[in-house]
Design goal:
Strand order of the largest sheet: 3-2-1-4-5-6-7
Shape: globular
Organism: Salipiger thiooxidans
Order of helices and strands: EHEHEHEHEHHEHHHE
Structural class: alpha/beta
CATH architecture: 3-Layer(aba) Sandwich
Family: Belongs to the short-chain dehydrogenases/reductases (SDR) family.
InterPro entries: NAD(P)-bd_dom_sf (IPR036291), Sc_DH/Rdtase_CS (IPR020904), SDR_fam (IPR002347)
Number of helices: 9
CATH class: Alpha Beta
GO molecular function, one term: oxidoreductase activity
Number of strands: 7
Largest sheet: 7 strands, parallel
Helix content: 40-55%
Protein name: NAD(P)-dependent dehydrogenase, short-chain alcohol dehydrogenase family
Length: 254
């Protein structure tokens, strides 16, 4: 799919991987809806790339539906949708204080997994009603974000790994179901990246993490994630797959 001239919608686009993706798609000629829970962050990025800012909690179905309606009304049908919204949580199943973190587990799944599913569903409904873009009958692409934790989850990552595992698992069945509409579904599973979650790490912790990265032995840059999104958009045979983007890292148990 050619990016230039397309409408794109990126969630979690107020920072990190989502922001880098929104910027790269805009630079390639797309008109981008910058969706983020934080209104100020969304507006900042949208102002800088000439996009449309929308403040949305992706776990709120009605709010997501309204956001897609706004995008369709102001920009047109989004043909590229990238799910980057998510939260990083850590906590043991049996914490020392004895209080079971059931609510934290539920919240993680609501934002990361249910939120991705809600966005995917509304994106697919709009795309399926649109005209094909090429001779193959392509109508759009949805890219979700998992994590290497879905395969290599560490102690304390039960909720996070479960949420990202759900995203990885829905990739193939979603791609198979939506294939008849010409809609592709892909997932990227990033490893250790320079984001707000990693920015607060103590220097010694950062050094230890980077030492475990085979090559390159550094954290990924958000624009390297965005570059893979661009490559997925442009390569029509990429469908129904989870791609690890991780410097060949395999996370240790703890």
């Amino acid at each position: 799919m050619e990016i230039s001239g397309q409408i794109a919608l990126v969630t979690g686009a107020g920072s990190g991987l989502g922001e880098a993706t929104a910027r790269r798609l805009a630079a390639a000629g797309a008109r981008v809806a910058v969706v983020d829970r934080g209104a100020e962050a969304a507006e900042r990025v949208a102002d800088e790339i000439g996009g449309l800012a929308i403040a949305v909690d992706v776990s709120d179905n009605a709010a997501v539906e309204a956001a897609f309606a706004e995008v369709a009304s102001k920009l047109g049908t989004p043909r590229i949708v990238v799910n980057c919204a998510g939260i990083g949580t850590a906590g043991r199943i049996l914490p020392r204080d004895g209080v079971l973190p059931i609510e934290a587990f539920e919240r993680t799944l609501r934002v990361n997994l249910l939120g991705s599913y809600i966005v995917l569903s509304h994106a697919a409904r709009l795309m399926s009603a649109a005209e094909p873009l090429d001779a193959d009958g392509a109508r759009g692409l949805i890219v979700n974000t998992a994590s290497v934790a879905y395969q290599d989850g560490q102690i304390g990552q039960a909720a996070y790994a479960a949420s990202k595992g759900g995203i990885a698992s829905l990739t193939l069945p979603a791609a198979r179901e939506l294939a008849r509409f010409g809609i592709r579904v892909m997932t990227i599973a990033p490893g250790l990246f320079e984001t707000a979650m990693s920015a607060g790490l103590p220097p010694e912790a950062r050094t230890a993490l980077e030492a475990g990265l085979p090559f390159p032995s550094r954290m990924g840059k958000p624009d390297e994630f965005a570059l893979l999104v661009q490559q997925i958009v442009e390569n029509p045979l990429l469908n129904g797959e989870v791609i690890r983007l991780d410097s060949a890292v395999r996370l240790a148990p703890k």
